[in-house]
Amino acid sequence: MSTDRLTPPSHILRHAALLITGALILIPFVWMVSLSIKPPGEIFRASFSFWPEQFYGIENYTKALTEAPLPQYMLNGIFVCTMIVVLQIVVCAPAAYALAKLDFPGRNLLFGMVLIALILPHEVLSLPLFILGYQIGILNTYAALIFPYIVSPFGIFLLRQFFKTVPDDVIHAARLDGLSELGIVWKIMVPMALPAIIAFGIFSVVGHWNSLFWPLIAVRDQGLMPPPLGIMAFKNEEAGNDYGPLMAASTLVVAPLIIAFLSAQRWFVEGLTGGAVK
Amino acid sequence: MSTASFTGPDPAGSSTNTAETRKALRNHRFAETLAAWSLAGPALVLLVILFFLPVFAVFGIALTDWQFGASTLSFVGFGNFKEVFSDEGFRASLTNTLLYVAIVVPGTIVLGLVIALLIESGKSLRAFYRAIHFLPFMATLTAMAIAWEALLHPTLGLVNQTLAAVGLPTANWLRDENTVLPVLAVIGVWQNLGYAMVLFLAGLKSIPQDLYDAADIDGADLWLDRLRTVTLPMLGPVTMFVFIVVALRAFETFDTVQVLTRGGPGHASEMLLYTLYRESFEYLRTGYGASVAVVFLFIVVALTLIQARVMDKRVHYQ
User: Fold this and answer.
1) Residue A240, pLDDT score
2) Which candidate in B114, B129, B138 is best for mutational testing of the A interface (most A CBs within 10 A)?
3) For A90-102, how does the pLDDT look when each residue is reduced to its tens digit (9 = 90+)?
């Protein structure tokens, strides 16, 4: 929009203002990292300095990695997020293709159901889903963390929008080449909608890596906990007093997504604001 | 938009309208329907099991006095709802949530808008500033809540140290019933303002340059004039959208309450989702928990329907 019409002093003001708000935004991150490399003595002396007099990072991070099963939490998180996103795409892509490109009785009804499911906040469903998990005996397993999410109304909605933009001729040509409908989904539609798939994948992984509510309900075993639940358990065990290792653990939980975000900013912004922007 | 009709590029064909072609057409239709339902079938079944049956179940359970694990239950009609609304804890929870939303939504919108305007007003370092301000939105809130707790620690925290250093009064932020909710709201604004900023940036990009040129001709030379006559009015629809989306996110706040306060001190920071969680899964008052869920659902659905109407308006604008 606005072409560069600001005068030089206002340029300086712009940078000053944004650097100040940016610095304020970053304080929790900076403080977290700072405490994670300080020895207990320095934490309790409460100084303003970011860098410790005595570097204690190795001790704190070792403690975080060994006293809490943090590597286990991270593996759990990676496994659960991967399973969820793969299952979501496997279930949603064919349905999205049917809704976008096939004409069949009941299509509007099905799309209406997707839209209604899109509105429902997942927390409202947690009680019946908990009972369902209990009935089929999968509470406190990986399956309990995964099953509520294997169909994503948002995934169907987003992919349908994208699939609609694929020209019909491409599909006709594929049929003439003898591809089955399912073949068309996986060999034609999904590769052509790769940007949407990536955006949806980021949306899904970020959401489930960060989520605390359902894991808190679904699993009790430390060995099954995803990172947010694990770090909460670690905090409660340590009674919140051993700040160094706790902050080291927090840093390690936050780090993977931050690094991924900084290296693929555009994709993340696209994925997380998703349908909202367009 | 046409669908890629299953019958191929030449559905009715140029052939004569014989019974045979009609029959062939019907077979094709049947095949297309069959293909569509087998593709959408798994998603349909899962939608029913994981979304629709649970919603009906929540309404059903809310009408009973069932406690999870109990073998008997009886129908109590709207008894749970009466109990919910006369319960001091729940009323506090509802009031707190509304108050929290009333702080987080305007705070997020104003800061998000100001930062977006600042970023758009120049060309340099745009991506850098956008990244910094967006960071909290995707950082794991559970972990960041722990970092906030350290910042707000009554004796060791940076916040109180800073206040003490400049001679201002300090507080035990998370244990004082007067400060706990505003502090949680500050964390809420901190987390969401990057999201609002990104939506506003998209809105700013879509304002046509013509409008600025026209404003120029009309004598709107100052940045502030253009802001008042063009930018802000054109951002109206986006702002309404941000309002609803942020309100929804604020209503769904859970992590910070669970990690930092557990609703305390007293009921001072209890919020709807935390009440829902505690009643359903800690106290196992299943019927009661379900009716809290129903109340929560009504709020969220109402907001979403407003959003749908707003989105309609937005289309008319363009």
Assistant:
1) 55
2) B138
3) 999 999 999 999 9
| Chain A residue numbers touching B119 (CB-CB < 8 A) | 18
Which tens digit of pLDDT belongs to each residue from B138-162? 899 999 999 999 899 888 888 988 8
A241 touches chain B (CB under 8 A): no
Collect all residues of chain A within an 8 Å Cβ-Cβ radius of residue B198. Answer: 269, 273, 277
CB contact under 8 A, B37 and A262: no
Task: pLDDT band for B70, please (50, 70, 90 cuts).
Answer: confident
Question: A128 and B198: CB-CB below 8 Å?
Answer: no
Q: Residue B121: CB partners within 8 Å, gap ≥ 6? A: A2, A6, A10, A14, B223
Residues B269/B271/B276/B278 CA torsion (nearest 10 deg): -10
Assigned CATH topology for domain B79-317? MetI-like fold (1.10.3720)
Chain B residues lying within 8 Å of A227, measured CB to CB: 140, 142-143
Nearest to A123 among B40, B195, B276 (CB): B276
Quote the pLDDT of residue A142: 95
Predicted local confidence at residue B266, as pLDDT: 87
Q: Is A173 on the interface with B (CB under 8 A)?
A: no
Q: What percentage of chain A carries pLDDT values higher than 70?
A: 94
Phi/psi-derived region of residue A103, left when phi > 0, alpha when psi is between -120 and 50, beta in every other case: beta
Identify the structural domains of chain A with CATH numbers, from first to last.
8-56 (no CATH), 68-237 (1.10.3720.10)
